[in-house]
Amino acid sequence: MKIYMNTGGLAATNGYLVAHEASGHAMIIDAPHKTLAPLLDIARRNQWRIIYLILTHGHWDHIGDHQVVTDAFPEAKVLIHRLDEPKLMKPESMFFPLPYRIPARRADACLEDGQTIALGDLTFSVMHTPGHSPGHVVLNCPGESLLLAGDLLFARSIGRTDLPDSNSADMRRSLQRVLALPENTVVRPGHGPATSIGAEKNSNPFLAPPGS
Ligand SMILES: [Zn+2]
Ligand SMILES: [Zn+2]
Predict the structure, then answer these.
(1) Cα–Cα nearest to 195, from 156, 142, 141, 144
(2) Low pLDDT (below 70) residues in the chain
């Protein structure tokens, strides 16, 4: 497996290209505005076919470039959880007018908890992890000890739960679920650097039990 990241847009959001070299199949995780062109170039140079664009959730900073992906790779299926699909159908910020327009669209299919996504012989399980947004998902690839974590868990931080569509009780439950993954699982978040489940269990101040 190969993984590449590029960061951009107004919220410095991470987009990822994940490729299975033997099959030539690849996928993009999240679509920050004006950020994916270098990743699409890497896919083209390697003659990888991007078969999925997976959106961890529908916030504007993660969906801006969806059409850039499908223009370059028309067979790429755009996937999002059904509870966040409405934000893809009506892209906007909940706080301010965006200085650019994100085209509206439906998903090609909706993601569900427990569903698996195959990339060659790699298997990614979809975990529905609501809290930051109701339809937030993460992708867990146990074979590669990799978690694509979106805005659930960051290095020394967690996704915000003060948004109109967030819920802190759901967030606590979702964090407990991913913290049960093996400690050596590498966490690739939607913002900021990579980390691991073990590192966050030991030093993430937002995960400390109440009163400690
Ligand atoms: Zn978000
Ligand atoms: Zn974000």
Answers:
(1) 156
(2) 209-212
- Please give all residues whose CB falls under 5 A of ion ligand 1, grouped by chain where several chains appear: 59, 151
Q: What is the pTM of this model?
A: 0.96
Helix (H, G, I), strand (E, B), or coil: what is residue 150? strand
Q: What pLDDT, on the 0 to 100 scale, is given for residue 208?
A: 74
Q: Which ligand is nearest to the CA of 15?
A: 2
Helix (H) or strand (E) holding 203: helix 197-203
CA of 98 from ligand 1 middle (Å) equals: 15
Per-residue model confidence as pLDDT tens digits over 140-165: 999 999 999 999 999 999 999 999 99
All structural domains of the chain: 2-207 (3.60.15.10)
Token digits of residue 196: 């691991």
Q: Is residue 144 classed as helix, strand or coil in its secondary structure?
A: helix
